[in-house]
Amino acid sequence: GRSMAVFTSGGDSQGMNSAVRSVVRMGLYLGCKVYFIYEGYQGMVDGGDNIREADWNTVSDIIQRGGTIIGSARCKDFREREGRLKACANLLDKEITNLVCIGGDGSLTGANTFRAEWPSLVAELLSRGQITKEKAHNCGNIQIAGLVGSIDNDFCGTDMTIGTDTALQRIIEAIDAVNATAQSHQRAFVVEVMGRHCGYLALVAALASEADFCFIPEWPPPTNWQEILCQKLHHTRSTGTRLNIIVVAEGAIDREGKAISADMVREVIKKTLHYDTRTTVLGHVQRGGMPSAFDRLLGCRMGAEAVLALMEMTPESEPCVVSIDGNQMVRVPLMECVARTQAVQKAMDSKDWELAVKLRGRS
Ligand code: ADP
């Protein structure tokens, strides 16, 4: 059987454990040797105890846990060829030539670079006498399948990323909690959610929590947004509503590209309407807690598909990303998705936006 390794890299997200479990078990089922690489690329560069064989039971009892049991890290060394050379030597030591990378677009970009460089890394190790001719021959290529783990749903080429659904649950729970206290005190709450470049979480959370207003990077509000916001809030109060919820994405901007922060929104409301207004920045709470059923299933399905993809790859095959498209697992070229993700913002569903406006009114 082939040898493969799985690692998680970049920001963690709920459902990564489910994906790790699925990769391990599908790999074992197909007769492969499966390794964990702990601490992402750092573990690959450092080697030693960071690369350990997995068995069926090491992934028991992890599907319900948040985060990633094999650790994730950011790694400077892997950005340099010298670091990748060390990583290559460590993988060759165990004859690992199949990788499942679970991470965001940075991690997947790194994987692509590694794959492109691999033959030259092997040649260099051979010329330095660090590996045998036989090993260089047997391990001349590396196959890579990527899975996108990200709470932001910010990756082009997949309908959803692993962790988004759970983050959304956390946001909704938090807004519901804030709601109760806001009702009691007639407060306005400005809730900041994650999403530097992608407003998906903010928009769908606003839709699902009956927020009055929502600020996202994709659709900056009109230049007189302060006026529109206050008119809207004033109107809802005058019809008897006791609370207001405003959702702001981390990366929200105005039409000139300047940041709109939760604190700015609060100040506008306080100054103009004199409402008791509070900001809540949800931060890492959004990454916490147990993964939802959806993210567990997504991890299971994507992990298994990644292993099948690796089994079918030839040395010429380009790395792929396993995506969900129309509720089916599909394989798409990794570089195409990374390039699109870096060049354009992921297309938001404008129908969700229109629906949010219609159901709650944004004027
Ligand atoms: P994410 O995968 O969540 O987007 P990062 O962008 O921080 O997170 O990337 C995670 C890690 O992937 C980095 O710490 C680095 O080790 C590796 N990486 C990212 N971009 C590159 C790159 N262009 N070349 C090589 N490695 C990279």
Counted by DSSP, the helix tally is 12
Task: Output the structural class.
Answer: alpha/beta
The strand order across the widest sheet is 3-2-1-4-5-10-11
- How helix-rich are the residues, as a percent range? 40-55%
- Tell the overall outline: elongated
Largest sheet data: 7 strands, mixed
Q: What bound compounds does this protein have?
A: adenosine-5'-diphosphate
Rounded average pLDDT: 94
Order of helices and strands: EHEHEHEHHEHEHEHEHEHEEHH
Number of DSSP E strands: 11
Please tell me how large the radius of gyration is: 23 Å
Oligomer classification: single chain
N-to-C terminal Cα separation, in Å? 62 Å
Percentage beta strand: 15-25%
Low-confidence stretches: none
Summarize the structure in words.
The protein is 44% helix and 17% strand. It has helices at residues 16-29, 40-46, 81-93, 105-127, 133-138, 164-185, 200-208, 225-238, 262-273, 293-312, 334-343, 350-360; strands at 3-8, 33-37, 51-53, 98-103, 143-148, 187-193, 213-215, 244-249, 276-281, 320-325, 328-333. It has a 7-stranded mixed beta sheet with strand order 3-2-1-4-5-10-11, with helices on both faces. A 4-stranded parallel beta sheet has the order 7-8-6-9, sandwiched between helices. The model has no long low-confidence stretch (mean pLDDT 94). Adenosine-5'-diphosphate (ADP) is lined by residues 9-11, 41, 74-75, 78-79, 103-107, 109-110, 113.
In short:
By secondary structure, the protein is of the alpha/beta class. It has helices spanning 16-29, 40-46, 81-93, 105-127, 133-138, 164-185, 200-208, 225-238, 262-273, 293-312, 334-343, 350-360; strands at residues 3-8, 33-37, 51-53, 98-103, 143-148, 187-193, 213-215, 244-249, 276-281, 320-325, 328-333. Strand 10 (320-325) and strand 11 (328-333) form a beta hairpin.
